[in-house]
Fold this protein.
Amino acid sequence: MVNIARFSPLDNAFDQLFRGFLVRPVNLEEQETAAKFRVDISESDKAYTVHAELPGVNKNDIQISIDGDQVAISADTKTEKEVKEGERVLRTERYTGKFYRAFALGSVIDEAAANAKYADGVLELTLPKKAAAAAKRITIQ
């Protein structure tokens, strides 16, 4: 037996209307600098060394905070790009954002002796470890 169904264009209208609505568009252009914030941490007996890549950031816009063994690095960035052809502006793009990374190290950091250098888009932190307090022995009387 053959089943015959009548075609109605309104049956699939709702599905067609929202097809692709929840799919995020793909950006094929270069990702912004916020995605490129990379950190390398190395440890020696006396200090930690942190290398953070912050391309295109002014050193005055970088903030570093140390609280015990917690280290936080943040920076504000602003990028403007304008493409011109003759006197006509073809495209103008602006990007503002904020970098932020926080991590815990295994030892308490000596904030007074910490050192930071920024050159060629790379932030280098030298974070000396605080000397561990010697255990005190108490005699019972």
